[in-house]
Amino acid sequence: MLLVSSTTISDPSGDSPSGKCTARETKLAGWRGFHQSPFAATAVDPALLCDLARHFSALPAPVVSTQPDPALIARGEEIARRGNPERDVPACLGCHGRPDRNPIFPQLSGLPAQYIATRLALFRAQRRGGTRFAHLMHNAAKNLSDKDIAALASYFGQIPRPAATAMP
């Protein structure tokens, strides 16, 4: 049985000396891209998870700009609110920003910019799915340029995550 937690990944194969990846390896792996799809790990042979954690933890840390580009954020906000009708790109907030949105449409505010950029690029390439609504994102992202994706990622990434609300 594969056990995954925020600090360890059990190695049922017994190949690692301790039988577990170190907390540092799994944490670094998460920060360097391995954690970004909780469903991806289900398709991986459990014996390989520690190797993957070691691989991702050995990658250089991503470069994060400390100075957001106001023009890029403003462009992202424009696309998020109004879309780009000339390129047949709908407004992101039409689905993702509504208080009454379908819960399957994620709240984008506060997600890491790199996460958003990666997902948009995958949707644009039609290599991301997961729900019966994936075709909506394929169509929404197909005409986004790399600069549009960077702008949207910058915009949503700099907005604080909304506070959780209690279920009725």
TrEMBL record:
One of its GO terms (molecular function) is metal ion binding. Keywords: Electron transport, Heme, Iron, Metal-binding, Transport. The keyword Iron-sulfur does not apply. Residues 1-16 have a biased composition (Polar residues). Gene3D superfamilies: Cytochrome c-like domain. Residues 1-22 are annotated as: Disordered. InterPro entries: Cyt_c-like_dom, Cyt_c-like_dom_sf, Cytochrome_c_Oxidase_Subunit. Residues 71-160 form the Cytochrome c domain. This is Cytochrome c domain-containing protein.
